Structure formats: C-alpha cells, structure tokens
Automatic annotation (TrEMBL):
Protein name as it appears in the record: Uncharacterized protein
Disordered: annotated span: 1-22
Source organism per UniProt: Bremerella alba
Keywords, alphabetical: Membrane, Transmembrane, Transmembrane helix
Membrane-crossing residue ranges in chain numbering: 31-50, 70-92, 104-124
Compositional bias ranges of the Basic residues kind: 1-11
Source species, domain of life: Bacteria
Amino acid sequence: MSKKRRSSKKLSRPEVHQPPSEPQAVESLTVFWSLCIFATLVLVVAALLLRVSVAFWQPAENASNTWTGFADLLLFSAIISGSVGGILTPIVQSQRKRRAPKSLQRAALAIAISPWILLALLVARS
C-alpha cells in the first residue's frame, strides 16, 4: 500500500477570492429589503391565524380582548414593514446589476400590499 503525498505547493497556496459583483451597500440594501418582505409575510400570517383563532374560540359579544389587540399590533407592524419593503422594491431593483426575477418582484409587491388589503377587509367588516 502506497501513501499519496500531497504537494506542498497546493497546501501553501492561498485561496483566491472573487471580488463581490455588487457593492456592499447594494448587498446590504438587498438583505434589508428581503428581511422586510419576509417579516411582512410572517406578521400577516400570524395576525390572520390569531384573528381566526379568536373568532373560533371567543364569543362574538366579547370580541375586544387582549388577543384581538395583539392581532391588531401584528397587523400594524406588518403594514409598516410591508410599506418599507414595497418602497424598497423598485429602489433595490434599479441599484442591482443583476435583477431579481419578475416573479419574485411581483411576489414581494403582493406581500407588501397584503397587510393593507387585510386592514381594508377588517375595516369594511366592522
């Protein structure tokens, strides 16, 4: 059995890193945009689930309780983060060299608009 010897050139050679294709500020803006959109999605889903669970488990005459207030707080947070994400969508796409696919842009805008639609439905219902 023979042992393979590694050459010292391969071990001592430093790795060559490719320079980033986008400036760091644009990358940071992209990360912030995607976090805003993801936070909006999570907050809208949580607000909807909380509203639905309160509707099933609470009597209708006692609708203004702590859980409904918490659902409204989640919806307000979703409106704020969704508005920021919606405003940032065209800014991020114009700053990047390599744009996101159109389907991702449309999904981001749909998620950013969804808390406003939910608020309109809740106002129309009450």
